[in-house]
Every structure is written in C-alpha cells, then in structure tokens.
Amino acid sequence: MERKYWVLIWMLGLFSYSAILAQEAFATDGGINQTDGDGLRQGVWERTYPNGHTMYKATFVDGKPVGEMLRFHPNGRQMARIVYDDEGQIGLGVLFDENGIKMAEGTFEGTHKTGEWQFYNPKGRLIAEEHYVNNLKDGQSVTYYSNGRVASISHWEKGKMHGLETTYYPGGGERLTANYKEGKLHGAYTIYFENGRKEIYGMYNEGRMDGSWFFFNALGHEDYRLNYKNGVAEEQGFLDKQQEERFREFERNRGRLKDPEDYTNDPDSYMMGQ
C-alpha cells in the first residue's frame, strides 16, 4: 500500500464550512459574500488565506452552490474542484494534492459523497475504488498495490464493514479472509502464509475470538491449538509471549493499512474551511 499517500490524505485539514459562512468579517463590497433578506447566500463568495492566496471561490443561488466550486491549498494550487448542476444537488468532484496532482474523484449529492469514488497515488495510479450511499461506504471497496494488483476487497453496509473481507499479498495470493457483522469480526477468520497454506484459523463471535483456534507452520502441520471463550484463551499458561506475539503482530500490521475514507467525511468542510 502507498503509506506516504495515506499520510498526505490524513494531513488534509477538516474544516468548518458553517462556521466560516457564519462569520460577518467578510468584505461585502464588490458584490461578493452577499446574503438576501432570508439570510441565504447569493452570488459569488470568496475567502483568502493570510498570505493573500484564494482559499475558496463558489457561486450560490438561494443558499446552494451552483456551477463551479473551487478550493485551494495555501500555496495557491488547486485543492478541489466540484461542478454542481443548476439545482445545486449533484456535483462532480476532483481532489488534488499540494503539487496539483489528482488524488480522488467522484460524485457529491448535495454535500454527501455518493456512488463510485476513485483514489490515486501521486504517480497517478489507482489505489482504491469505493461506493458510497449518503456519505457512508456501502457496497464493495477495493484497494490496490502500486503494481496494480488487488490489495484488499471488503464489503460495507451503512458505513460499517459487513460481510467478507479478503486481503492479498503483493504477488496475488490470499493473505487473510475474515467475516464481519455490522463492523465487528464475526465468523471464520483465516491467515495464510505466502505459500498459500493456512497459518492461523479460528472463529470470531461478535468481535471476540471463540472456540478452537488452530496455528500451523509453513509446511501445513499444526503447531498447536488454543480454545477461546469470550476472547480469552483457556490455555493461558501455555500461551507464552512468543506464541501470542505471532498473532498480535499480524493484527498490528493489518491495522496499518489505512482506508481512503480517512481523508474526509465532510466535503463541505473540506471545500470551504480554514
């Protein structure tokens, strides 16, 4: 996975759209930053950074953005561009890094991500495809290694992982298969060696390891097994630090695979905040 890219995404600020628009410190001469008698934004709205570069520029009709909405990095390069329809409901968006390289593209419905979204690394390679409903991940999510091979496939429902997740080694073989229920591990869980043989196999019940768990060596022979109840191994005396670390290390490494969703859940804030 492209870890540096995930760091870049994480560093993009999450800003308050409503707080900025509520401020009355904007200059109102020149016909910009105007509201009507009902307090609805009308016409062109702009704001600048302290260094004088434009922060954002958008046009509103009855409080809704229409046409092109632009957001910029402090260095003056474009951060995002969303083109809304005449009703201010559907917008096609593209997000850029500080060097002007495209990072993501997809559709907004009002202020919510909807439909298919694609995410890219700084070299322009596709690294993730996700589906959204009402700003929440819903459906299949796929991430890719820089070599173009699939890194993971997961399934989501209303913003929570639900169903089968499969991760892969860069060479293409399965690394993990796991089942989720409303965001919690639930059901069969299998870790594989790169040679395709099972390394660890067991079951989860509502997020806790449950029943017999089997641990194998790279030749496919069982090393040992442990019995879990409510997430605790009954053979704690046998489970020494080295054996426990074998499983915990995999979980730690797995947690480092960041999700494209980390970049923002709020396009309004992203577009128009400080």
TrEMBL record:
<feature type="region of interest" description="Disordered">
    <location>
        <begin position="249"/>
        <end position="274"/>
    </location>
</feature>
<protein>
    <submittedName>
        <fullName>Phophatidylinositol-4-phosphate 5-kinase</fullName>
    </submittedName>
</protein>
<dbReference type="Pfam" id="PF07661">
    <property type="entry name" value="MORN_2"/>
</dbReference>
<keyword id="KW-0732">Signal</keyword>
<feature type="signal peptide">
    <location>
        <begin position="1"/>
        <end position="27"/>
    </location>
</feature>
<keyword id="KW-0418">Kinase</keyword>
<feature type="compositionally biased region" description="Basic and acidic residues">
    <location>
        <begin position="249"/>
        <end position="261"/>
    </location>
</feature>
<keyword id="KW-0808">Transferase</keyword>
<dbReference type="GO" id="GO:0016301">
    <property type="term" value="F:kinase activity"/>
</dbReference>
<dbReference type="InterPro" id="IPR011652">
    <property type="entry name" value="MORN_2"/>
</dbReference>
